[in-house]
């Protein structure tokens, strides 16, 4: 028993995967590795006693920038989902 | 002994691997129940506690966040009323749909859409960016990719109907 993806890989597939997933990986994993290897603090935010969330002091990469990368990546994947639905991509 | 081989291309390179189809189906179903219950519980408890007028001021009023320019538009009036209604009702319907396997891809799309806002609003990054909100976002994507509604779900029945067969685009909403 086997499966076979018998549809062509389109440019839209590659853009969605490369850019969408790529930006999310950049925002989470790659910048996370940079953050860890640059020393303490190892996490981007900290919570004060009153519950306020603040950027951790000494953080290397502004978590706002990382969040923007992740959001744009996720948005690209969502746009691809809408595009695939609209164009009936990969449907016989 | 594995019984399913995936044979495809990824960025132009051949990717081929074997996977146990039975365990794939089983775990997809298990995951679907977990994800569905998680969101259904989140929504129904909000409705039980405060009806369909959820206090979403913490959600829409924060400034300086990635999506604040969009969320701040919903701080008052009818837009705020929409948010108050849609968070508990939306979570309940998304969770219920995934739980029973009906319109799973549509429900998961909106679940992921909601989770993007929660990821950037809650900012629970005290232990890194991969927190429960991020995991939730990824789980909804998993529901879409795995077409989780097709395993013992209502979507499995719906996809066999002549209506869906005649309009194959609907499979992007089902599954």
Mean pLDDT of chain B, nearest integer? 93
Q: What is the general shape of chain A?
A: elongated
Mean of residue pLDDT values of chain A: 88
**Main sheet characteristics of chain B:** 2 strands, antiparallel
Largest sheet of chain A: 2 strands, antiparallel
Low-confidence stretches of chain B: none
The secondary-structure element order of chain A is: HEEH
Q: How many domains is the backbone of chain B divided into?
A: 1
User: Which residues of chain A sit in consecutive blocks of at least 5 with pLDDT less than 50?
Assistant: none
Oligomer: heterodimer
- Biggest sheet of chain A: strands side by side, in what order? 1-2
Shape verdict of chain B:
globular
Question: Could you describe the 3D structure shown?
Answer:
- The complex is a heterodimer of chains A (92) and B (175).
- Chain A has one domain (14-87).
- Chain A is built from two helices and two strands.
- Chain A has helices at 11-37, 63-87, and strands spanning 45-47, 53-55.
- The two termini of chain A are 21 Å apart.
- Chain B is mostly helical.
- Chain B has one domain.
- Chain B has a two-stranded antiparallel ribbon.
- In chain B, helix 1 packs antiparallel against helix 4 and helix 5 (104-122) packs antiparallel against helix 6.
- Chain B is globular, with a radius of gyration of 19 Å.
- The interface between A and B is large, with 36 and 38 residues.
Helices and strands, with pairings:
The complex is a heterodimer of chains A (92) and B (175).
Chain A: H1 11-37, E1 45-47, E2 53-55, H2 63-87
Antiparallel strand pairs in A: 1-2
Helix pairs in contact in A: 1-2
Chain B: E1 4-10, E2 13-19, H1 21-50, H2 57-60, H3 68-71, H4 77-100, H5 104-122, H6 132-145, H7 154-158, H8 162-166
Antiparallel strand pairs in B: 1-2
């Amino acid at each position: 028993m086997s499966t076979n993806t018998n549809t062509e890989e389109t440019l839209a597939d590659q853009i969605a995967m490369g850019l969408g997933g790529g930006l999310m990986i950049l925002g989470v994993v790659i910048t996370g590795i940079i953050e860890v290897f640059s020393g303490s603090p190892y996490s981007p935010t900290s919570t004060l006693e009153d519950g306020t969330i603040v950027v951790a002091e000494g953080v290397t990469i502004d978590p706002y920038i990382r969040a923007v990368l992740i959001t744009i990546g996720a948005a690209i994947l969502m746009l691809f989902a809408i595009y695939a639905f609209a164009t009936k991509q990969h449907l016989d | 002994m594995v019984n399913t081989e995936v044979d495809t291309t990824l960025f132009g390179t051949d990717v081929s691997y074997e996977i146990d189809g039975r365990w794939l189906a089983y775990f997809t179903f298990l995951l679907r129940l977990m994800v569905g219950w998680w969101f259904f519980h989140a929504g129904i408890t909000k409705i039980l506690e405060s009806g369909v007028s959820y206090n979403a001021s913490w959600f829409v009023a924060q400034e300086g966040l990635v999506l604040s320019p969009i969320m701040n538009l919903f701080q008052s009036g009818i837009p705020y009323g929409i948010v108050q209604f849609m968070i508990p009702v939306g979570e309940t319907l998304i969770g219920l749909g995934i739980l029973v396997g009906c319109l799973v891809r549509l429900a998961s799309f909106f679940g992921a859409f909601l989770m993007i806002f929660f990821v950037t609003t809650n900012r629970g990054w005290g232990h890194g960016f991969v927190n429960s909100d991020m995991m939730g976002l990824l789980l909804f994507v998993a529901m879409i990719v795995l077409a989780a509604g097709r395993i013992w779900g209502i979507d499995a029945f719906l996809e066999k109907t002549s209506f869906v067969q005649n309009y194959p685009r609907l499979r992007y909403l089902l599954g």
